[in-house]
Specification:
2 strands; 2% strand; single chain; two-stranded antiparallel ribbon
């Protein structure tokens, strides 16, 4: 194996001596191709992931918002009975984290499988072998954190501030 590598390097060096030629080893060509494909496919894939995360976050946020608006009367009754704002906010946060966790349990495995299929299909279409199909732990951790935490950022003010929602008739609704 070492002799073969030395022979390839010797041939490359001999070819480079010819004027107007550029010679690369097979491993250099493969590395250059990987770099090129990463530059070409990385931005669109990151954009698709960002859009999917945004849409998923909005869906979960809308579910939480709808549940919160529907429960505003209950929150008003709880406040009238002496419940503290903190206990209502903790209930809201628990609901948001629970829905986010359920969304993460569904979305992350589906996303990993989808990414694997997409990468395999692109590689097959380009007649290219993937050297590594594993996702870095940072990608999985950040996906989980964003999926679980993002719903907390969407509309917590309805519960936290206790501002009533005004319906069409412009009367406060709790």
């Amino acid at each position: 194996s070492l002799r073969i590598a030395q022979a390839e390097e010797w041939r490359r060096d001999r070819l480079r001596e010819l004027p107007g030629t550029t010679a690369l080893l097979k491993r250099d060509v493969i590395a250059n191709d990987r770099t090129l494909f990463a530059r070409i496919f990385d931005p669109p894939l990151r954009l698709m992931v960002a859009i999917a995360l945004l849409v998923g976050t909005l869906v979960v946020g809308l579910i939480i918002y709808t549940a919160t608006v529907e429960r505003q009367r209950e929150y008003g009754v709880l406040k009238a009975l002496g419940a503290r704002r903190r206990s209502i906010v903790v209930g809201y946060a628990t609901m948001a984290l629970g829905l986010g966790a359920i969304a993460a349990l569904v979305a992350i495995p589906v996303g990993v499988v989808g990414a694997e299929l997409q990468a395999t299909q692109i590689a097959a279409a380009l007649n290219f072998d993937l050297a590594d199909r594993t996702l870095p732990i940072g990608v999985l951790a950040s996906s989980a954190a964003l999926t679980v935490g993002a719903p907390l950022l969407l509309k917590p003010g309805v519960v936290a501030t206790g501002i009533p929602h005004r319906g069409r008739d412009n009367h406060p609704r709790f």
